[in-house]
């Protein structure tokens, strides 16, 4: 996508509210990316909450999605998909809301835009996002990455 003079929002999330985790690295990396792409960062959202919560329970995410859809934002920038959530259904609901407003989600660790330059859903991104969201969901329930099925 041509990002020249495009408006972007950064959303950064960590699960913990203690000093062990913060969002500064996510924000700094996404700001550097946006500068290199000539994107204007119009708002930054930071949240300290589990990605397993429903979107309705995540006030900052809800505000971010509303802002993006009501203020003609072109991009929502994420450091990785799991920042958007750890529930496949919740991630897909967020993407649907954004895509209806023609907001493309950029996932930095994948170098992937969810929409094509013509505003249509990127089919490769759609497949990857669905699979990765489900992997995040599984990881949430099985943090030791043990196999679910045992012989």
Task: Kindly describe this structure.
Helices cover 38% and strands 19% of the residues. With 151 residues, it is α/β, with parallel strands linked by helices. Strands 2-1-3-4-5 form a 5-stranded mixed beta sheet, sandwiched between helices. A hairpin with a 4-residue loop joins strand 4 and strand 5. Helix 3 runs antiparallel to helix 4.
Concise synopsis of the structure shown:
The chain is an alpha/beta fold. The chain is 38% helix and 19% strand.
Keywords:
5-stranded mixed beta sheet, alpha/beta, single chain, 5 strands, disordered C terminus
Secondary structure layout plus pairing:
Blueprint: E1 6-14, H1 24-36, E2 39-48, H2 59-70, E3 75-78, H3 88-100, E4 104-107, E5 112-113, H4 123-141
Parallel strand pairs: 1-2, 1-3, 3-4
Antiparallel strand pairs: 4-5
Helix pairs in contact: 3-4
